[in-house]
Each structure stands twice: as C-alpha cells, then as structure tokens.
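Objective 1.3, modelling of assemblies. Example input:
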Amino acid sequence: MQFKDQIDFIRQHMKRNKLRVATTILAATMGCAFLIVLASVGFGLHQTITDDVLDNNMVTQIEVAGKSDGEAEIPPADIPDAELQQIKEMAHVIAVVERNKPEAETEIVIGNRSTYSQVVLSSMEEEQKAGFALSEGKMPSKAEEVVVGYHMAERLLTEAEMEKEANGEEVAGFAGSLIGQTVELELTPFTAEGEEAVEPSTWEFVVTGVAKEPAKDWMTDAGIYADSSWGPIFNEELGLEKGYENILVYADELQNVGGITNALKEDGYYVYSVTEELGTMNVFFNGLKAGLIFVGTIAVLIASIGIFNTMTMAVTERTREIGVMKAIGAQPKLIRKLFLMESAAIGLIGTALAVAISYGISILANWLVPIIILSSLGEEDASGMSIVISTIPWQLVVIASAISIGVAMVSGWRPARKATQIDIIQALRQEM
Amino acid sequence: MIKIKDLQHHFKIGKKGNERHVPVLKGVTLEVGKGEIVAILGKSGSGKSTLLHILAGFMSPETGSVVVNGQETAALKESQQASFRLENFGFIFQNFQLMPGLSAFENVELPLKIKGMAEAERKMKVQKLLEKVGLEEVAGHYPNELSGGQQQRVSIARALITDAPIILADEPTGSLDSETEKDILLLIQSLNKKLGLTFVIITHDEEVAAVADRQYRLHDGELVKGEQRHAV
Ligand SMILES: Nc1ncnc2c1ncn2[C@@H]1O[C@H](COP(=O)(O)OP(=O)(O)O)[C@@H](O)[C@H]1O
Ligand SMILES: [Mg+2]
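Predicted structure (tokens):
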C-alpha cells in the first residue's frame, strides 16, 4: 500500500470515530502540554539565573587567587612575573592585569571639594588591553598622571553640599571637566581601635582622563587609577606591608574562558571565573530539568492509557474489516503498521497541539507571574525586573515530542499486534 | 489450476481435557482446471466452508495437500500467503463483506490499494470494471445505500479487480432473493466465458450449482461427483 493511501486510510478511520479520537487526542495534548510547561519552568529559571550571573560579572575575567606548587601556597603577589608572562602568552588571553589597592583610607581633594575614593594601582597599558576605556581625555603618559572614575566629578562635594546630601537633597558636585586639574590624594593607614591616629600622607596628581561609565547603571565609579609603580612608594611612606594583589586574566571571548580556566587549574593556579559558577549551576539545573521532565512524563503515561483503550476498542470494532483485509491479501505487517500509524497520529496531533498551547501558557506565565509577584511585594514598577519564568527551547520540544509520540506508539503496540493476530475465519463470521 | 489431494480435517469441540474430535473432511480430493466452474454442494454443516477456507489458506489442513498454480499453499508463511491470495484469488462471500465506511468505488479499489497501485491507474481500472458489472450509477454509494444484489455486484467487482485467475465463492447468492440470484449467476457465467476465470462455488442450492461445469457433493466428509447439468 502506498504511504499516501495509508494516511488516507487512517484518516478515514479516525473520522468515523470523531468523538472518541478527539477525546483521546485531548488527553494526549494535556499530558504533553503538562510535561512541556512543567519542564519549561526549569529551563526558564536556569536562563534567568544564568543571565543574571553573566550580567553581573565581567564574564571574560578569570581571577587568579594564588597558586600551589605542590607544597606551599603562593599568594598572588608572590607569583613571579615570568609565570604571569607565560599566562599572557596563552592562546585567547588578551591581558593579565595585576591590581593593587593600598590598605588605607583614601580621600581625593580638589580646592574645597573632596570625596572618599579607592586607589587602583595597575599597569594602565594592560588595563587598556583588558578593555579599560576612557569617556574623555587620554591615558596617562607620566607617573604623576592619573585617570579618575566616571562618577568622580559628581562625588566631589563641598562640606555644605555633603550636609545637603545627607538631608536627601540633590547636589551637583564638581562642575566642568576634571581633565588637566590637579587633585590631592590623601592616604591614611587604617588604625585599630585605641591606636593613635596617623596623619595622612598627601600626593598630587594631574588628571588626564576620565574612565568610561560602568557597564551597569547601579555601579558607581569614583576611583582613581594610577600606575603600579606607586605601590612601593605608598607602602614605604605609610609604613604598610605589601598588600593583597589581584591578578586578573582576560580572555578574548566568553567561550574561551572555560578552556583557559581549566588550563590554569592544571598548572596549579587557584582560579575563579564565571564558567566555574555556571558549571555548578548547570549541574543543579540539569538535574532539576531531568526531574521535571520525569514528573511530566507521568502525565504523558496517564494519557497513554487512553490511547491504549481507544486503539483496543478500534481493533475490536473493526475485527470483521481487518479479517476482510487479511482475506483479500493484506499483509499482517501492513495491518500492524496502519494501527501503529493511527496511535502515532493521535500522539502527533496531541503533541503539536500541546507545543502550541505550551508556548501560549509560557508567554502568559512570563507576563503574569512577575506582575503577581510584584503586586504581592507592593511594588509598582515592573520594568526593572526581567524574570523569565518559563522558556521552551527547541530541545525541550524535541524531548517532549519524542516522549509523547514514543509513548503513544508503545501504547498502540499491543492493540496493533492484536489486529494482526485476528483469525480471518472468526472475523468473517461476525455480523456486520 | 487447483489440485486438492486427500485433505483431512477435524475440529475439537468442548473444554480442554474433555474435548471431542469431530472429523469434517475425511480425505477430499479434487482437481479444478483453468476456466472451469466447479460447484460444491452440501447440507449446512457438511464442511463446505471448511474446505474453501483451507483452499484459500485461511487455515492449514491437518493432512493432505493443496496445490494452486503449482504452489503448495501450506508451505507458505503467513505473509507469503497474503501475497499469494492477492495474486491468485478473488473472494465472494455470502454476506458480501464490504467495508461500511467505503463507497462502492472505494470498496472495489481496496485490493488495488493494498497492492500499492498508483492512484491514476487504479481509478481508471475501477471505473472500467464498475461499468462492466453495471454499477457506474451507484459508484459513490455506501454499502448501506445499496440493495443486496448491488452489494454482491460490488463484492464481485472487488474479487475481479486484481485480475486474479481464481474466484472462490461461498454461498454467493445465499442472502439474495431468487430474481437477484439469477442476475448474479448470469454475471458469474458471463465472466467465466468472457474472461476465462476459474470459479469454485460453494452452495447448498441445486439451482446455484446448476451454473457449474462440474458438481460435487460433500457428504459425510467425502466428496462425491454429482450429476452434470448445463442450464440457466
Ligand atoms: N472453528 C470451529 N470449531 C469447531 N467446529 C467447527 C469450527 N468451524 C466449523 N466447525 C464445525 O465443522 C462443521 C463444518 O462447518 P462448515 O465448514 O462451516 O460447514 P458448511 O459451510 O458446510 O455449512 C460444522 O459442524 C461446524 O459446526
Ligand atoms: Mg458455510
């Protein structure tokens, strides 16, 4: 029998029992939609949290927190430059930045304005390779030149303005450009309680550039970026120990972060990167998704009982017709195929409907659930919140379809086999 | 064309462990030549249908052999038997055995569909045959919209459509009134003459058997040659 005729054949049969077939399809649809929607929550939450992690991290940054040479632990500051040079030369590494922050209270003063700040001592050349950029001015060319954070100007306040701000009033900060201005950097070593306060030490710097705005609008950058050669000078003047050093390795692209991270780990470095965090999360969420798919499959199995019943009834009802088909010369294989195709068709139609419905429910949930959560929290503004409750990636559609159609065919298997085993003589004896 | 040799068959009746053996066929031998009409007469329950079912391959004989077109049918597997039937046999049943969900046209078309014939070729063939058996008017009707005689014509057309050389008919007029019966018998005769088809007709009715070239009587499990008549 030609495939087209087989399709015609089962379509005719399904039409003859519209109501029964329709209710069976409905059950299959519900089972499959339940599976997809349930699992889509796992996929949605995974996506939301992954996006969140990627959003709030320098995703191409790998932090080196030291090294183990087998016996001793080496802090980042003591890692020899030669080894850092080796890291720099690794494939896909675009920069290795060593950052120092003096362990002292930092204040920037210009005229009668001042602000608390944070000195970052680094090689500006490497920082630039790692993506450090300016919003105005140029990079320092001399040791006495610095770059200030994007928000430095607006944080430089007079004492009167500081008071105003404390009262919740708007303040303007330094008007005009800081480029070319000379700022005073005051460093005061931290003192423990009871210790005598130490007088601050002061240095003067010329601002040549202002850093670009931080990537996230909730971040404020009122720092000051100076060359790393200042580290020993500050430490000596203030009588400080060598502080903690941050070593940051930058990859060219996110997809290479994992490879670099693993390579560094193998060399004994203690490293931390976004892929590490995502890795543990992936394990958790993949487990969750598998669990949800498993629970959803139970619904599909329940629906399959309906398919089994429908097909069994269909075979019983059509015993005489099957007998005639066999008498005329239809192969048992053909009979089995026709019935399997019918149960597969029920599964297929059910799945197609379920996929469409699931997308609808998913869109609805993503729209409705944040509103409900926010209103229950008493918040008005939903614009800042981007929670994805449910996503249906194509992989989920494939998995759910395979389960649904597979289960439909398995439940049609026994009825189909029963059909092939029908005895021609018995069947022909049946009344019409 | 058909060679049946020393066919024996019995049924078991009753519960397991307490069953009774009822012999139905006790050594039936029969030869049917190409283009012959052979009638097998017999009382109800004499085993006529059983003989036909074995001949058609619906069941296997206990002993004896059935050779059709040189092929020992019992030697074939189930799937091979299906193909063999499709090639060699057309069936006419007492209660027509039409598909209620298919129109007259589609019922006749069904064996060709099973054979896998392409649609255009198939439709043409069915159309022609329906004209030949006088059904073109009711081609679109469903079995429940047809008279008994029309239904049996549809079933005859279905038996003929595959060009099978042998037509097996079990009480072909058993459900028809005597007027219609005559029509059908005339149709069978003319098909036999025009197309050279071989018919094995099973009946309890002497008048039906009268169309046959040869008649046999199944009695007490044995086949006896009956009288020869040529009339209608
Ligand atoms: N499946 C069966 N099981 C037991 N007995 C059967 C079966 N089929 C037929 N018989 C018996 O075999 C005998 C012959 O039946 P059948 O060939 O149908 O007769 P006919 O067609 O001549 O009326 C009958 O007595 C019937 O009761
Ligand atoms: Mg009978």
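Residues 368 and 389 of chain A are 10 Å apart (CA to CA).
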